[in-house]
Amino acid sequence: MILKSMLNYQMPLDLAFHALADPARRAMVERLSRGPASVSDLAKPLAMSLPAVMQHLQVLESSGLVRSEKVGRVRTCRVEPKALGVVAEWVARRRASWEQQFDRLGAYLAAHPEEPNAKKD
Amino acid sequence: MILKSMLNYQMPLDLAFHALADPARRAMVERLSRGPASVSDLAKPLAMSLPAVMQHLQVLESSGLVRSEKVGRVRTCRVEPKALGVVAEWVARRRASWEQQFDRLGAYLAAHPEEPNAKKD
């Protein structure tokens, strides 16, 4: 039961990381993080058909990383800062944890200069 | 050809984001970012069989996020800071880009208080 609720809770991260595991989708997020763009703007540098881009866009939209809005004949896409923020937060927390770990190791080694083999285990 | 070389270049990010798209693997990275652990230590909070954990470990190792080493009968796993650093860097750059975008919009709106429709372009 614990795992089940953990899975539900973590769904947005699953979807966001999955969406970012594709180079075309990352290229789209890169483009959109510089400003809104139409679907054809997104397609140009990717040398991809519009339907292929639309499929990638759908994955990005269901992950919450991107949203789009159709006005007249043009669909304009924007990055959704909140979802990428959740990813950034998760990664930053892990980074902070392991840096603390190395700081502790460094402090230990500094405090025990007489034990040159301390680093080996 | 451009797309091909882009794909090759981006492979590590593909693998890292794919590895992180699973809650069990993220739980393992979370645990390891607090310090090295054996495979059975990793398995405990996940309520998963050792073979299942080993499979997730394999995905994490091929992504470069984690490495493991067997000494005697115990396999000890560690986080590989460089690979998670690449992910952190990618996410941070996107965040910086879109924040710049909002700053520019904010500056524009501050400079044009007399145009309430300026946001609509």
Brief summary of the model shown:
With 121 residues, chain A is mainly alpha-helical.
Explained architecture:
The structure is a homodimer of 121-residue chains. Chain A is mostly helical. Chain A contains 5 helices and 3 strands; from the N terminus they run H-H-E-H-H-E-E-H. Chain A has helices spanning 2-20, 23-33, 39-43, 50-63, 81-111, and strands spanning 37-38, 66-71, 74-79. In chain A, strands 1-3-2 form a 3-stranded antiparallel sheet. In chain A, strand 2 (66-71) and strand 3 form a beta hairpin. Chain A starts with a helix and ends in a 10-residue tail after the last helix. The model of chain A has no long low-confidence stretch (mean pLDDT 86). The interface between A and B is large, with 38 and 39 residues.
Say what oligomer this is: homodimer
Largest sheet of chain A: 3 strands, antiparallel
Structural class of chain A: mainly alpha
Mean pLDDT of chain A: 86
Number of helices of chain A: 5
Which series of helices and strands of chain A comes N to C? HHEHHEEH
Q: Helix content range of the residues of chain A, please?
A: 55-70%
Distance between the termini of chain A: 37 Å
Number of strands of chain A: 3
Largest interface, by Cβ-Cβ below 8 angstroms: which chains and how many residues each? A-B, 38 and 39 residues
How are the SSEs ordered, and which strands pair?
The structure is a homodimer of 121-residue chains.
Chain A: H1 2-20, H2 23-33, E1 37-38, H3 39-43, H4 50-63, E2 66-71, E3 74-79, H5 81-111
Antiparallel strand pairs in A: 1-3, 2-3
Helix pairs in contact in A: 1-4, 1-5, 2-4
